[in-house]
Specification:
The protein has 460 residues and is α/β, with parallel strands linked by helices. It contains 12 helices and 19 strands. A hairpin with an 8-residue loop joins strand 14 and strand 15. The longest helix is centred in the first third of the chain and has 18 residues. The chain is globular and about 60 Å long. The termini are far apart.
Length: 460
């Protein structure tokens, strides 16, 4: 998607939902990037404090607040820019006809909508107030509020998903994050394995439960069939399929699926691909015309990728490989050349004003995968921050091998414990050995919630 909701028809609806409150001009100042290995940064420190304060004020477990925020945005407010469903901030407070969390937050906190949208601390406060309200409605009180397992239906309601399976998809992801722990943007939660009390959702089949009908419906073997609303695409084609278009959702996987199932959205894509593991959901049959690139819709197939254009941490190796497999399969079945003239970004399609997949999308790597290069370069993690130092050993006194100018895909070959590093409001003594840079960097600047990276061996 790469910009905002694409459909003019939504303008009046969104304006009505916001009751005239959203008049968001300009953008949030970008969060100041902390100096590598520094003692902290005001902005990340403020985020950690904001979570603590909101959790205490509204009696919402901090792990729940952080888990929702990480699932929605990787704790990035995206400079106050809206998601595809008109959601704002790192907690994704939404203003559309089916999700009123922004207007609810404004009513509950007394804060103006513009501040809730653009100020991260206010955004966290607003989300906590909404979750608190939903917990009250669910009868969650007293000691039960401290039980993370009991928050499942509250979190599911916060998602305002289009249906119960999508709500379960959203909420299961939040609990996965709570179980893994978070370490990002100066905010840290320790891993907490929780067996959620799903309540009524225990009877809801998880998204991806296959039936004979769903297996027959998909064009790509292995995809999950979850149909978009029939109001959001046109049956049939008026032109031969010749182009595959790469999009970025500007929102979460579950949120995007829910949005395409919302008949008011008037937008869809054929496939949606998850960041964490490359899971593929097909929502429109390839024989039908999804609404994703305006006048080019009749001859294109659209692949949406979970994440945000400005945030490379979403573009995981699992996502690249899964997406490339889908693209290769489509091209081979339909005789589409596997080149950049026929596999294009949304921003490259004439008559469109979107920016996705953006400057962080690795086209070289992606096309190598699409064409079956047996030995493409592999990356297993992404860094964040700018000016991050890579050292000859896991010590602050070790010589500097190189400096990473900004978010970079890296391959971590192994990790080991070394000097304790304090930055972004947290401390960590685990260091990663980077294959391509030939040195070590603190795990604080690896964009993964765990202090010790999973699946990475200990350095000998």
């Amino acid at each position: 998607m790469g910009k905002t909701a694409r459909v003019p028809r939504m303008t009046a609806l969104l304006a009505a939902a916001a009751a005239g409150a959203i008049a968001l001009s300009g953008a949030l100042p970008g969060n100041a990037t902390p100096a590598p290995e520094a003692t902290g940064s005001a902005v990340p420190g403020d985020l950690a404090k904001a979570f603590e304060t909101a959790a205490t004020t509204y009696d919402v477990p901090r792990e729940v607040l952080v888990g929702v925020g990480y699932a929605e945005s990787h704790l990035d407010g995206h400079n106050g820019q809206p998601s595809q469903s008109n959601g704002y901030g790192l907690m994704h407070l939404v203003s559309n006809p089916l999700n009123p969390t922004m207007s609810e937050a404004a009513k509950l906190t007394g804060l103006p909508v513009e501040k809730l949208a653009k100020d991260s601390a206010a955004n966290i406060t607003g989300a906590a107030a909404v979750l608190d309200s939903y917990a009250d409605q669910a009868g969650l009180s007293g000691e039960a509020r401290k039980d993370l397992a009991k928050w499942y239906p509250v979190i599911a309601k916060y998602s305002h998903s289009a249906d119960a399976p999508t709500g379960r998809l959203y909420t299961d992801e939040v609990y996965r994050i709570i179980g893994a722990g978070v370490g990002a943007a100066g905010v840290r939660t320790e891993p907490k394995r929780v067996t959620p009390d799903r309540g009524a959702y225990a009877k809801v089949a998880p998204l991806g439960t296959r039936t004979p009908a769903s297996i027959q419906a998909v064009d790509y073997p292995g995809a999950i069939w979850n149909a978009a609303s029939t109001a959001n695409y046109r049956a049939g084609r008026s032109a031969a399929i010749s182009t595959i278009v790469i999009h970025v959702t500007q929102g979460s996987y579950a949120g995007t699926i829910s949005w395409f199932k919302n008949p008011e959205s008037q937008v869809s894509a054929h496939y949606v691909i998850r960041s964490s593991d490359g899971q593929v959901t097909q929502m429109v049959a390839e024989k039908d015309t999804a609404w994703h690139v305006r006048s080019a819709n009749p001859y294109t197939i659209g692949l949406e990728h979970e994440g945000f254009v400005s945030q490379p941490s979403w573009f995981t190796d699992a996502m690249y490989r899964s997406s490339a497999a889908v693209t290769r399969n489509i091209a081979d079945r339909r005789g589409i050349p596997k080149d950049r003239a026929h596999i294009r970004g949304h921003n490259e399609i004439p008559g469109n004003d979107h920016t996705d997949p953006g400057p962080h999308w690795n086209w070289t790597y992606y096309m190598q995968l699409v064409n079956g290069n047996p030995n493409p370069p592999t990356y297993n993690f992404t860094t964040y921050g700018s000016g991050v130092r890579v050292r000859s050993d896991a010590k602050l006194s070790a010589s500097i091998v190189t400096t990473l100018p900004g978010p970079t895909q890296v391959f971590v070959t192994c990790q080991k414990q070394g000097d304790m590093v304090t930055a972004e409001g947290t401390s960590n003594n685990w260091w990663s050995k980077l294959r391509d840079q030939g040195g070590y960097m603190t795990n604080i600047y690896i964009d993964h919630p765990a202090a010790q990276l999973p699946g990475v061996p200990i350095c000998p």
